[in-house]
Write a structure and sequence with these properties.
The chain is an all-alpha fold and 169 residues long. The chain has eight helices and no strands.
Length: 169
């Protein structure tokens, strides 16, 4: 009932509800407006504009090509180059402090088994205390997450130790 009331003539201020006069004004399509808004946001951030004429690669394809080129369909020559780079990286990393620490822990366990036994007992006590405090399911899940992180962090050294113990197979 009280819509679009005017208290006098305001001259060039335009309509009170511009959406009603939208039919009179030429409008751009939603797609164009969306594209222009994205372009404006890119310019404000400082990124270069993207031309639609260039063939684009989706972020998933780019990540797959970077992380798993053999699954992304990279050529065999590129796969050989990547494997050579990985091998060179592993060769450069040879003096491994983590491997030395594994050897040190193994030597400590062989020379002083009581120290290792005390550590195992204390870890069991702490596990039980944590299970009582927060619940056994949370402790189990946390321990599983820690185990997954541990295996991911030490995977190269554990594989190397496994090769040394297993005779290189």
């Amino acid at each position: 009932m009280g819509r679009n009331w005017r208290l006098g003539d305001f001259g060039e201020t335009g309509p009170f509800m511009p959406e009603r006069d939208a039919e009179k004004a030429p409008s751009k399509s939603r797609k164009d407006v969306h594209r222009l808004m994205i372009e404006a946001a890119r310019r404000m951030v400082g990124r270069p504009s993207v031309d639609d004429s260039d063939p684009k690669m989706s972020p998933v394809e780019a990540a797959m090509l970077r992380n798993a080129p053999e699954l992304a369909g990279a050529p065999a020559a590129e796969l050989a180059i990547l494997q050579a780079e990985r091998d060179a990286l592993m060769e450069r990393r040879w003096p491994r402090p983590r491997l030395v620490s594994l050897i040190f822990v193994g030597t400590l366990a062989a020379l002083m088994p009581t120290v290792v036994l005390r550590l195992v007992i204390w870890s069991l006590v702490l596990f039980i205390v944590a299970a009582v405090a927060v619940g056994p399911e949370r402790v189990r899940d946390g321990l599983g997450g820690f185990g997954a992180w541990f295996l991911r962090y030490w995977r190269h050294e554990l594989k190397l130790a496994q090769k040394l113990v297993g005779g290189g197979h």
